[in-house]
Amino acid sequence: MQSQDVAQRHAAASAGAPHPAVDVEQAEAALVEHYPRLVRLAYLVLPPGLARGRRVLTAHALVQRALPRGRQQVPVVPAQSNGRQTDPGYSLVRLEVVRTALEAGRPLRPTAWPKRAQLPPLLPQVWGLRLFPRSGGADELALDQRLAALSAPARAAYALRGLEQLPDGDVRGLLRAAGVEHPEGALAEANGVPAEYPLLDSPEFDPCSLQARPTDLMRRRRHTKAALAAAAALAVCGALVGLPGGGWGADGAAAPVYAQNPAAQAALDPARLTKVPATAWKTAARTDFSVWPARGALTGDTALLRRALAVWARPGDTVRVSATPGTQTGGPAGPPQLLYAGVVDSARVVIFYDGLRIARYAEPKDGTQGAALDFARADGAAGVEASALVLGRSDGNVRYLTAPWVTRAAERDLTKPDGGVLDLGLTGGVTGPLASPALQQGTCTSWNVLQLTDAQGVHVSADLGELMPARLTAGRPGKAGEVSGATALRDWAPFACSLAAERSAGVRSVNAWAFAEQELPDAAGSGSWVCTRTETWRGDGTVSLAQFRTPGSRYGAVAARGADVTACGPRDPHVLAGVLWKSGGGEWYLLAAGSRDTASVRATGGVTASAQGTQLVAETKQGAQAELSGTLEDGSAISGLR
Question: Which residues contact 596 (CB under 8 A, 6 or more apart)?
């Protein structure tokens, strides 16, 4: 992590007052002037379990790496005034020294990439010699043993009190800025060691005044031979891995680099990814993807994240790229937000959000070549529309990653309104497998949907073969509600299978509106009219379907279709449609119906007829074609959907 990031965290942790700026030259001057003091501070904070020689070299390495990167202006908290430290440049490098010294004492974890401070220093190095501070007296030895029994934050608190002469308030603030979660506990633990602060200036704790002794000469000779053999083996393995199909390189399946600029490089740096805290959504002004936390077991896998970002920017020839209509597939303009990184079935999956798009990267878990990159637009998604994302599909099933505010996930068959729901369970926001209708072939006999529950109620979404499921609603356009009540479920049931026509079309939502019930001739019962309207993420490509279902039929039939029309939508919540129907006695009729505010209906062309009110029934012949028009109660005209 760069020193600029540390300074920014330090600034955020302070009271919010304006801070001076420190450039790299000012920080370097402070480091050079106070180098012995900074190295002594690092030596005191480093874990005593290290050999004294390695502890010395590590202390020097941490101080020499404490400068900010580049020649940028870096905001920092001003130095605490204690008569000797009034230089903000010194405060900056001191904070970085304390932070990295604390990191060096943390144990390595098999699931996380090690910090640089946790590894042996590359530089400085002294070959063939062991260096260690001069031995002190009995008092210094006793103090060293007491400090060794403290935790790293407590040692840092003791050193900042004694060596830096900082008051407890400043020590608390500095430790918090350095990443210590409970600085008060560190101060309390440090109180258990007598305040023998003058001893900290003794040669026992001075990594700049050293003694030198030779290392084990015979062991050094054996290690040299082993190192040469290991280097030869590493060269052979590297050549094999670099062969086509021989495994993942640093950038995985990405194409060769074709451009270098600071903005592009920043966007592909895993360390710069945005990771939102787990509870950010609880206090945010809106609920959308920007407040989703990063989840999954591999959010710390830097190599995986680097491959995913590189493939996003430069997908190679072996990468399968897909995108919903109207979605750009170019690389991110800046560091995106990480939503998920983990193993899903037989693949490692990473999901990013850049404010406009969802990008999903997947690679085989077994390390074989071949990767997939999928994109979907998500601009303006909020609330229910930002409640779920597809993690993966396998064996006809789909798994979802849900929003942090979702409390329950279940599956229901939309074609069976009286059927129950099957709980899918939630583990870290990931649902169990759901049988996906987007993958089914042949005759539609069921349509499984995702039912999510949150504090606002129950919401239903349908998988249409994209990263984002389409939200389903029911009711008059502009006043539509959730598909959760018995009436809404019954309205949707006969027309659920019509969703198959909207697969992979960039669908944002689909509304079903039961706009009319019509009595059929010859006392054949009552037919139902429903208009289903599909809205897309890109705005155009909307589809309005007028569907008619006769008594006893399980499914409805499409009577009229309009693409990119306002009818049956929030801007024009009216609809007029007709269909040819054959009675049980063999007679043919034109049936037409409009929404409830229709005042009259008229048919011209192959059928000439008119009627007052919302409906029209006229005898006709098989194959007749008619033009429908009507008048609304306010006197405006309406044309038939076709």
Answer: 515, 516, 614
pLDDT digit string (tens) for 465-474?
999 999 999 9
From residue 465, alpha-carbon distances to 35, 211, 377, 507 in Å are 61, 69, 14, 10
- The pTM of the full predicted model, rounded to 2 decimals, is 0.61
Q: Which residue has 């202390």 as its token pair?
A: 59
Dump pLDDT digits (tens) for 166-224. Answer: 999 999 999 999 999 999 999 999 999 999 999 998 888 888 888 776 765 566 566 66
Tell me, what DSSP letter sits at residue 464?
-
Q: Is the dihedral of CA 212, 213, 217, 220 positive or negative?
A: negative
Cα–Cα distance for residue pair 24/39, rounded to 1 Å: 19
Sign of the CA dihedral with 125 first, then 127, 133, and 138 last: positive
Which long-range contacts link 607-611 to residues 24+ away (Cβ below 8 Å)?
none
76 contacts 14 by C-beta, under 8 angstroms: no
Look up residue 459 and give its amino acid.
H
- 361-366: list long-range contacts, CB under 8 Å, 24+ apart: 361/307, 361/308, 361/311, 361/312, 362/392, 363/248, 363/252, 363/253, 363/304, 363/307
- Angstrom distance (rounded) from CA 68 to CA 74: 8
Residue 267 pLDDT greater than 90, yes or no? no
Task: Name the helix (H) or strand (E) containing 533.
Answer: strand 526-536
Cα–Cα separations (whole angstroms), residue 283 to 209, 287, 355, 455, 540? 53, 10, 19, 14, 34
Encoding tokens for residue 139?
Answer: 């008092």
Distance (Å, rounded) from C-alpha 274 to C-alpha 154?
A: 31
Give the number of C-alpha atoms closer than 13 A to the C-alpha of residue 83, restricted to the C-beta side. 4
**DSSP code at position 541:** -
Count of other CB atoms within 10 angstroms of residue 15: 6
Q: Which is it for the CA torsion 108, 109, 115, 119, positive or negative?
A: positive
What is the number of other CB atoms lying within 10 angstroms of the CB of residue 141? 13
pLDDT tens per residue, range 201-210: 888 888 888 8
The three-state DSSP-derived secondary structure of 94-135 is HHHHHHHHHHHCCCCCCCCCCCHHHCCCCCCCCCCEEEEECC
Distances from the Cα of 221 to the Cαs of 129, 153, 500, in angstroms?
14, 39, 72
DSSP labels, 581-642: EE-TTS-EEEEEEE-TTEEEEEEEES--EEEESSEEEEEE-TT--EEEEEEETTS-EEE---
Instruction: Confirm if 438 and 398 have CB atoms less than 8 A apart.
Output: yes
